[in-house]
Specification:
globular, single chain, four-stranded parallel sheet, 14 strands, mainly beta
């Protein structure tokens, strides 16, 4: 029996990468890689995707959130089938639903919407939990299941006043 990679209910915090990707999931030979109920937020990949898959892999990405990546696309796979189910790809600088996944938006409850995190500050303990009106909560998602690693943890959060310089410093 061969054990294949799986990520389940994880938050993968901002990480920079200049190569193809910071995360590279590929089992030996042909097989399956599953990413379920994960949150990727602020991960940069200048020359690739936040989540890339080799063509020899049959990936399944369910109930996963990929948002606010300052460089690179959200997910890359060259295979023919739709691999995304109940996912939110939003605000990724290189694109959200791109390449062979371009037709996945609006199919199998996949959305492209602001996840509405409780806190926009990356080091805040509520950074990746969701506001009550988030489209990623179980109550608001089309599939009736949470999208991402964490569920609702706060009410609607009002925007915070800040300077342009403070915003730039958060993303360096």
């Amino acid at each position: 029996m061969r054990i294949l990679p799986m990520l389940f209910a994880l938050v993968l915090l901002p990480n920079p990468a200049t190569a193809q990707s910071y995360y590279h999931l590929q089992p030996d030979g042909s097989g399956s890689t599953d990413i379920i109920w994960c949150t990727f937020s602020g991960n940069a990949c200048e020359n690739g995707a936040v989540i890339p898959f080799e063509s020899s892999v049959t990936p399944r990405v369910h109930n996963t959130l990929v948002a606010h990546s300052p460089a690179g696309t959200a997910v890359h796979w060259d295979g023919p089938a739709t691999i995304l189910v109940n996912c939110d790809l939003f605000g990724n600088a290189g694109g959200d639903y791109t390449g062979t996944l371009a037709g996945a938006l609006g199919v199998d409850d996949n959305i492209q919407a602001d996840p509405q995190f409780c806190s926009p500050i990356p080091d805040d303990h509520e950074s990746w939990t969701l506001q009550e009106d988030s489209p990623c909560t179980a109550l608001n998602s089309g599939a009736g299941m949470r999208i991402g690693a964490y569920g609702r943890a706060c009410g609607t959060v009002a925007p915070r006043a800040t300077s342009w310089g403070a915003l730039k410093n958060r993303h360096r």
